[in-house]
Design goal:
alpha/beta; Alpha-Beta Plaits; 2 domains; 6-stranded mixed beta sheet; 29% helix; 23% strand; Ribose5P_isomerase_type_A; ribose-5-phosphate isomerase; EC 5.3.1.6; isomerase; NagB/RpiA_transferase-like
Length: 251
């Protein structure tokens, strides 16, 4: 078992929860020889910490890490972990990533960090997909916790899509703006992000049908809807406990 070296007392309670979820998932599903898709975001940084410790102490041998973003790649390199890509390793054993929200049907919203297209590509290449998150991401219905579905779009299509998506699907759309530069957020792929703020409290919403309609729209690269792909979610709670919820429909 790999154990954390950093005192958890130095972390805020929510960060302690994220770290416990990442370590619990890594201990159960990452083994020597694993070809691993490594997600993006604040919770995944603790997974990288887990991998670093296991690799350095010899408990994790011959692992291959395929990152889902530029930042994750930098974390892996700085940690001395073996980094590759889907060109060299197009089939992965496991992908572990965070989420902005997970509902009761294991449907996820991802893309708050703007990496949703690469995250979905890597996830699709893996045999198994596990989500690590704190309890604040756990919801009964999408929209209870996170207000929008991120959609990666080609820049020339952004203005038409800002108008056509609400007309077709309801709600409203905003072009995500950068915080440390003038203008919109630009993804690792050179695209823009539209945040679709969908209408809440709509009963019987068919997220798969919505995903298919959006994916078939010219100019849309990918959405932050992850449907029917999660094997299990590790939720960590502020009292220190970690709960694994298994998607029995996939087992």
């Amino acid at each position: 078992m790999v154990t954390s070296t950093a005192p958890e007392a130095e972390l805020a309670p929510i960060e302690q929860a994220k770290k416990r979820a990442a370590f619990a998932c890594g201990e159960k599903y990452v083994q020597s020889g694993c070809r691993l898709g490594v997600g993006s975001g604040s919770t995944v940084k603790y997974l990288v910490e887990y991998l670093k410790q296991g690799y350095q102490n010899g408990q994790l041998k011959d692992i291959i890490c395929v990152p889902t973003s530029f930042l994750t790649k930098q974390w892996l390199i700085e940690s001395g972990l073996p980094v590759s890509d889907l060109d060299a390793h197009p089939e992965l054993d496991v992908c572990i990533d965070g989420a902005d929200e997970v509902d009761g049907q294991f449907t996820c919203i991802k893309g708050g960090g703007g990496c949703l297209a690469q995250e979905k590509i890597v996830q699709t290449a893996a045999k198994h997909f596990y989500v690590i998150a704190d309890y604040l991401k756990d919801s009964k219905h999408l929209g209870d916790r996170y207000p929008a579905v991120p959609i990666e779009v080609l820049p020339p299509a952004s203005q038409p899509l800002l108008r056509s998506i609400p007309r077709a699907e309801g709600g409203s759309c905003q072009l995500r703006q950068a915080t440390k530069k003038c203008g919109p957020v630009v993804t690792d792929n050179g695209n823009f992000i539209i945040d679709w703020q969908f209408e809440k409290n709509v009963s019987g919403r068919d997220w798969l049908a919505i995903q298919q309609r959006l994916a078939n729209t010219p100019g849309i690269v990918e959405t932050g809807l992850f449907i029917g792909c999660v094997d299990a979610v590790f939720f960590a709670y502020s009292d220190g406990s970690v709960k694994e919820i298994v998607n029995t429909k996939k087992h």
